[in-house]
Amino acid sequence: MERALLLLSILFLKLFAQDEFIFWAELNTKNHILFHQKENLSPAMTKSEDFTQEYVCDIAYEDEDLKYLQKTELGLFDDDMPKELKLRFLTSHKGELMDCFSSVDVKVRDFVQNSFMKASTSTYVKFLPLRFSVIFSQDKAVIYLLKKD
Q1: Phi, psi angle pair for 23, to nearest 5°
Q2: Cα separation of 29 and 6, whole Å?
Q3: What are the two backbone dihedrals, phi and then psi, of residue 12, each rounded to the nearest 5 degrees?
Q4: Which of 27, 66, 70, 89 has a CB 3.0–4.6 Å from the CB of 78, allowing a cystine?
């Protein structure tokens, strides 16, 4: 029974939400020194409905990326390449994705504590979960933010 459920969920993942991903991150500093940074990237399990695409940024290919990204017989990037390859590309460019999404849905909390002649600061930055898609063109990957209508 568990096997059938697992196979069914994998089938749905392959059929739906083929090009959608979710990104979120958090950064924490103490006294202006970064002590925690975590970026998360996962494939979307469901496909978005009633959304608009908003251009966010481009990510240039590196030589290593060109070795594993699938191409068609005409030499163009395959739109139907496996989601694992797209996720591998995006994972290797997480830092660039953070730069792309730095102006979208960011939550910042800053605390200053004073005690006698000593002060300390703590800053928490959280990138709220964003749904986005990626389209591979000839010289770059184009990232689009998916916003609900």
Answers
A1: -125, 135
A2: 40
A3: -65, -40
A4: 70
